[in-house]
């Protein structure tokens, strides 16, 4: 009965990550200003109107600021989508002016005109980029302001999570935020958001107290449980569908260092890792709320011709090898080495980021399944069997990631704002 309950309640997300290394080595490749200019679209009516109205906040092809803005995506293919101009508003007023111009021109010619970018970590071309259109780059919305009583933080939508944890670490505080230091606050929070703190507090979006948002009319407004509560609810998981969010006010809580790191194991341990994953995630009755993960990654690295397994284990308290992980099947597996240690949240999220550098072509696919051992093994077998056909793809890095998302996490904070099936 216990195992049936676990199978029914626990869902597992798979992500298949395919990244092509652009150079022969592992260094990211970025295009120069000259290369960009040769493939850029001509100025448009809208880009001219914007640069006239906001001369200090619109950057045009040929400038180093333009190259920097269009190169700062995680996935290489996003950097190859070239806008006619980049708007980098410094204030909500400037963003409002830009949105009003876009709306006015959209009413005349309703073709795809603009894209919004926070941290640029979406690998989907045109999700946060637009060929020949207007790119709204939120990077100057970069303030992180702690409330006087330190119970909440207002985070500009252009921050990356490392900017947030850098401020909070100094105050022994944390928020329910990203696990990778370089990912943007905007896209992750509006997309739902899985955090190391989700087992304790729920999804990232479920911990947002209020949003400051610019609507399509150019109006700047706030959405919270008391003001525009329907919009507040709708924004949890909404991505860019209801407006451009300029800042998020989120709950803050005491947190001083975490225990976090990766175990690196030979490919021969794969089956045991899958079994340990299944057993650990199935502990629904004894799941320790400070436990985050496991995130099990099975990788084929074509340039080296090897397969390796890495498992991320986290405990959101500064406790070495806490009982929950000590009693897991991962501890006894033969491994090359472990990087698990007590460290700051910034350092833990940097470790995640270092394993996923920018500048490569990326393709991601994700699906959710129940925590059923035969299904997990079948999924791993499909991944393993696909490798043979991929051996000739030069520079390929091919990874299957298994990570848990438990119904309990979805029910905490604002309960299940995205309407996920928690049965
Ligand atoms: C290496 C890596 C690690 C990741 N780790 C995690 C993780 O730990 N937890 C997790 O939940 N997800 C994670 N993700 C997924 C990540 O949250 C999404 O890709 C997210 O969209 C990235 O946010 P961004 O701001 O960097 O993206 P962007 O590419 O800038 O934006 C993504 C989308 O959100 C929209 N958007 C962004 N900001 C705003 C705004 N202020 N207003 C309106 N629309 C906006 C954009 O228009 C775009 O459609 C990870 C992704 C990668 C590549």
What keyword list fits this structure?
423 residues, alpha+beta, Uridine Diphospho-n-acetylenolpyruvylglucosamine Reductase, domain 3, 3 domains, 5-stranded antiparallel beta sheet, 15 helices, globular, disordered N terminus, binds flavin-adenine dinucleotide
Describe this structure in words.
This protein has 3 domains: 2-25 and 257-408, no CATH class; 33-137, Uridine Diphospho-n-acetylenolpyruvylglucosamine Reductase, domain 3; 144-254, Uridine Diphospho-n-acetylenolpyruvylglucosamine Reductase, domain 3 (2-Layer Sandwich). The chain is 30% helix and 26% strand. The protein is built from 15 helices and 19 strands. The protein has helices spanning 2-9, 33-38, 45-53, 64-71, 76-79, 92-108, 161-170, 185-191, 198-201, 229-234, 270-281, 323-326, 345-354, 373-390, 407-411, and strands at residues 11-20, 58-59, 85-87, 114-117, 134-137, 144-146, 152-156, 173-174, 208-214, 220-224, 244-251, 253-254, 258-266, 291-301, 306-315, 337-338, 341-343, 361-370, 396-405. α3 (45-53) packs antiparallel against α6 (92-108), α7 (161-170) runs antiparallel to α13 (345-354) and α11 (270-281) packs antiparallel against α14 (373-390). Residues 1-11 and 18-38 have low confidence and may be disordered. The structure holds flavin-adenine dinucleotide. Flavin-adenine dinucleotide binds at residues 74, 115-122, 127-128, 138, 157, 178-180, 183-184, 186-188, 190-191, 193-194, 239-240, 244-245, 356.
């Amino acid at each position: 009965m216990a195992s049936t309950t676990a199978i029914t309640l626990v869902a597992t997300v798979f992500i298949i990550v395919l990244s092509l290394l652009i150079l022969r080595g592992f260094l990211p490749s970025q295009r120069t200003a000259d290369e960009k200019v040769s493939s850029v679209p001509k100025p448009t009516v809208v880009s001219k109107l914007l640069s006239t109205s906001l001369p200090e906040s619109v950057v045009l092809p040929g400038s180093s600021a333009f190259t920097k803005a269009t190169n700062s995506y995680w996935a290489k293919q996003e950097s190859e989508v070239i806008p006619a101009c980049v708007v980098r508003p410094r204030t909500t007023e400037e963003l409002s002016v830009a949105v009003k111009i876009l709306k006015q021109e959209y009413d005349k010619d309703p073709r795809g005109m603009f894209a919004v970018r926070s941290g640029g970590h979406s690998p989907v071309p045109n999700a946060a980029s637009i060929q020949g259109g207007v790119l709204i780059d939120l990077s100057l919305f970069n303030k992180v302001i702690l409330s006087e009583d330190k119970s909440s933080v207002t985070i500009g939508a252009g921050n990356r999570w490392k900017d947030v944890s850098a401020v909070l670490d100094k105050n022994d505080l944390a928020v329910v935020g990203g696990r990778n230091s370089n990912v943007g606050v905007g896209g992750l929070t509006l997309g739902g958001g899985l955090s190391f703190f989700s087992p304790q507090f729920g999804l990232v979006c479920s911990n947002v107290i209020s949003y400051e948002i610019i609507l399509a009319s150019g109006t700047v407004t706030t959405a919270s449980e008391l003001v525009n509560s329907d919009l507040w609810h709708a924004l949890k998981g909404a991505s860019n569908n209801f407006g451009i969010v300029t800042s998020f006010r989120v709950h803050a809580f005491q947190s001083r260092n975490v225990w976090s790191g990766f175990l690196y194991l030979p490919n021969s341990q794969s089956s045991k890792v899958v079994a340990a994953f299944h057993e650990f995630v199935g502990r629904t009755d004894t799941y320790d709320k400070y436990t985050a993960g496991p995130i099990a990654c099975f990788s084929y690295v074509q340039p080296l011709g090897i397969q390796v397994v890495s498992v991320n284990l986290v405990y959101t308290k500064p406790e070495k090898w806490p009982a929950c992980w000590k009693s897991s099947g991962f501890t006894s597996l033969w491994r090359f080495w472990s990087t698990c240690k007590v460290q700051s949240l910034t350092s833990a999220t940097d470790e995640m980021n270092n394993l996923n550098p920018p500048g490569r072509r990326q393709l991601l696919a994700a699906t959710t399944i129940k925590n059923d051992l035969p299904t997990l093994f079948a999924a791993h077998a499909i991944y393993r069997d696909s490798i043979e056909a991929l051996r000739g793809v030069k520079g390929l890095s091919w990874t299957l990631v298994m990570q848990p998302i438990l119904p309990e996490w979805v029910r905490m904070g604002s309960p299940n704002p995205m309407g996920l099936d928690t049965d």
